[in-house]
Amino acid sequence: MLLATLAGPSLATHLLFALACAVFLGDLGATLVTVLYQRSWYARFIRPKLPEGYSPRCAIIVPCKGATGSLKSNLESFFSLDYPDYEVLFVAESDRDAAMPVIEEVIQGRSNGKALAAGLSTACAQKNYNLLAGIAAAHQAEVYVFADSDVRPGPAWLRELILPLGSGKISVVSGFRWLHAKKGTFGEWMHAYANIFIYVTFSCAFFVGGVGLWGGSMAIRRRDFENLNVAAKWSRAVVDDLSLSQVIHKKRLKGVLVPSCMAHSDELFRNVNDAVRWFERQIMFLRVYFKPIWFFAALPIVLSGAVLMCLLPIAIVGHFQARGFFGSGGGAALLFYCGELLTVSFYPLMGPMPKFYRFLAFQPILRALQVISYIRTYTTNTITWAGVRYRLKFFGDVSKVERTSHP
Fold first, then answer.
1. What are the residues whose beta carbons fall under 8 Å from the beta carbon of 13, sequence distance 6 or more?
2. Phi-psi region for residue 292, left (φ > 0), alpha (ψ -120 to 50) or beta?
3. Where are the beta strands (DSSP E) in 6-107?
4. Cβ atoms within 10 A of the Cβ of 122, count?
């Protein structure tokens, strides 16, 4: 009786209700899979099969740009790792970068730390250019590890990250990050929500045998990096992680996401527009390197969410007219909104979420901004990242690098 009421009286409302059910079950299912994978599946079914004691020499390459209040503590955390043999190469685009004085202070007295200036990129993302400069200086490394400067890895991070590479079946490994929205501002929650959305997507991809890498915490054996000719790919690509994901996917190689390598960060966007543009950039990377997923998978999800979000105000208006609330699709709208709140109520099981009540209150608006970020990727063929504008060719190669200012 309740379902019949919620589904409404017409074929149109039945179809809308079925769409709401599909979106609700899809969102909830993906979130529960992520929680299961993070809290149990990897530890019980994947890690026990990995060879213990794999500890090759590693080079951790950390591209840096600018200096934030937490940069020093972030960089220092890379020298507190429980691992026998590794070096850390911090790479900025020039000696005049604001990060350089901090890097020099951090590596002082540490024989396994090095500061590098890559120069300015002309045909790829500056981050890629920095990574390639780090690789050129990592002469003795057997494993390349890539990390962002805005995260603080824990002591076991490196050991856990490279452990799966001891298995010849796994070619690349990824961790992820958790953003701590300590102030609970709208901009912070938008950034955190989009980050969790990507984490859930990547977790599900790995769970079903796919691949989705996050460049802030990933590793690959040197011989695989060279055999796959990743350097050539990066030398013309606009991003490091999804371009490498594309290479791994095309070669039908296997990767794994290591939940215990969740790196933590307090550096979130406070401004809503910055958070929206950040998520827009992530979707642009998807559009560039995984066009079928961007169009055939992401588009239906976005359109479904947009339709269901608009249903509630329409149904409220319909309540005062002859067709009524449920006759206007109100049942589908209620299922969608309640389903979204139920889904995100599982997010704290993945990581700490201070002031979670604000997140619940903002959630419908956050989902709407997600839709806006996706739609905007249809209107441009450029990506602006850290003050540099990259004009792209159809398959993701950079055709032009435009700088508004020099370091």
1. 7, 326, 327, 328, 329, 331, 332
2. alpha
3. 58-63, 86-92
4. 11
Nearest to 183 by CA among 267, 262, 263, 72: 267
Question: Which residues have C-beta within 8 Å of that of residue 207, sequence separation ≥ 6?
Answer: 33, 37, 41
pLDDT score recorded for residue 48: 95
Structure token pair of residue 88:
């850390």
Segment 124-168, tens digit of pLDDT:
999 999 999 999 999 899 999 999 999 999 999 999 999 999 998
Residue with tokens 């060719």: 393
DSSP state of 295: I
4: tokens are: 């019949």
Q: Which tokens in the block code for residue 351?
A: 């990581």
3-state DSSP assignment of residue 385:
strand
Q: In what order do the strands lie in the sheet with 388-392?
A: 382-385, 388-392, 398-403
pLDDT tens digits along 169-217: 999 999 999 999 988 888 999 999 999 999 999 999 988 888 889 999 9
pLDDT in tens, 219-245: 999 999 999 999 999 999 999 999 999
- Beta bridge partners of residue 144, listed in sequence order: 59, 220
pTM over 0.85: yes
Token pair for 95: 């000696």
CATH number corresponding to 52-291: 3.90.550.10
CA dihedral (339, 345, 351, 353) positive or negative:
positive
For residue 210, the Cα-to-chain-centroid distance in whole angstroms is: 15
Domain ranges of the chain: 2-29+293-400, 52-291
